[in-house]
Amino acid sequence: MKNVLIIGGGIVGLSTAYFLNKEGFEVTVIDKGDITSGASFVNAGYITPSHIIPLASPGMIAKGIKMMFNSASPFYMKPRLDADFLKWSWYFHKSSTPSKVEKAIPLIKDINLISRELFTDIKNSGDLGDFQLERKGLLMLYKTEASYLHEKQVSERVAFEGLEVSDLNKAALHQLEPNVNIDAEGAIHYECDGHTTPTEIMPKLVAYLKQQGVIIRTNEEVLDMKSTGNTIKEVVTNKGAYKPEEVVLAAGSWSGDLAKKLQLKLPLQGGKGYRINIERDTGITIPAILMESKIAATPMKGFTRFAGTMEFSGNNDIIRNERVAAIANGAKAFYPDIDINDTEIKNVKTGLRPVSPDGLPYIGKSTRIKNLTIATGHAMMGWSLGPATGKLVSELLSGTKTSMNIAAFSPDRTF
Ligand SMILES: Cc1cc2nc3c(=O)[nH]c(=O)nc-3n(C[C@H](O)[C@H](O)[C@H](O)COP(=O)(O)OP(=O)(O)OC[C@H]3O[C@@H](n4cnc5c(N)ncnc54)[C@H](O)[C@@H]3O)c2cc1C
């Protein structure tokens, strides 16, 4: 069987390794870090078939511009004269049309449902031992009529797609979540969604892959890819060089820069998010998005996580204190009895979501470089879509029929 080099050991790279290994490929994963941090560790752990509306939807750019100069706002675009960012913003704007959003919805739903199933299959296989995988749904908690009406409309679209959703008033919400004081008027409950603890799954996945003979090289950075004609001949790192038969680019928010080494265009921006963990009992048992605060709350294994912010300010891990404070205050606005303390705030962590301009991931073989497959750009859904992406890449490399039509995910698409 062919040998495959995967660049990036986030959920996408590791899921790809998981399915390629099952198909008998010889797999090596290279990561510039030690696979303990970044987006795949700080995310809210949601498995979200309900998130069918892409980020690039009508009105988002207007919202972004309105919030642009306020770094405490949940959606923040740092004004900067960076050619890649300006181009990406233009593509994002062009993608934010009702017809493009309508086309994206069934695709996002299909890949989400495939992935949700695969999470269950992985759990049932026992490969990773036991791990938290719950299906309690996702509550969209709202305080205002405007938020309710907005979400009601989204939920009708979600229900039209055949996904389970219900409308809860204040009393019904209290009945469902009795052990925590919630200051909200009600919730839309997306019963189709699930949740997990990423910091539990990621190390288990690494351990399983190593045990299966997958080579995982950490603290090794890919610096260059050398091609002749239409083939990558060598992948150069800070520690050596590799001559793989196939390369999978799954380097998250850094994938665009690496694609440039092969003169490929892969418009991508890192959308920074933050998480705060609370390691005491909060009484929260069902994941919730606090609509007006734009924060996610997840009851994970051993702690509750608050996560939020979509900050386009370049690929960095700079912590903006005003954002962290906004998350803590936003959580308290909905859960008045939960005080996030200074230590919890100090232990905040960030991660970069790899955001494509149209809300669809890049999954597919490059048409120009024949031994390159790209798997990135999942934005706010990368955790949910990791397993499906890995499976699709393994199908592409095995030459079998893909589980769904992925033409729209082509990394060569134009905007
Ligand atoms: C706060 C927050 C909350 C989120 N909540 C959810 C959620 O609830 N549900 C959901 O589905 N998604 C969620 N997401 C999104 C999700 O976390 C990401 O889409 C997903 O983790 C991306 O995975 P990835 O493997 O593509 O990238 P990453 O996890 O970023 O992994 C890429 C890896 O590539 C490595 N790399 C980069 N460059 C190189 C190089 N040159 N050489 C070697 N290695 C390299 C990096 O070190 C990194 O480990 C959230 C994200 C954030 C930030």
From TrEMBL:
SUPFAM superfamilies: FAD-linked reductases, C-terminal domain (SSF54373), FAD/NAD(P)-binding domain (SSF51905)
An example Gene Ontology CC term for this record: cytoplasm
Keywords: Oxidoreductase
Oxidoreductase recorded as keyword: yes
Keyword Oxidoreductase appears in the UniProt entry: yes
Pfam families: DAO (PF01266)
A molecular function GO annotation: oxidoreductase activity
All copies of domain FAD dependent oxidoreductase, residue ranges: 4-396
Domain of life: Bacteria
UniProt cross-references to PANTHER family, sorted A to Z: GLYCINE OXIDASE, SARCOSINE DEHYDROGENASE-RELATED
Name by which UniProt lists this protein: D-amino-acid dehydrogenase
Originating organism: Maribacter spongiicola
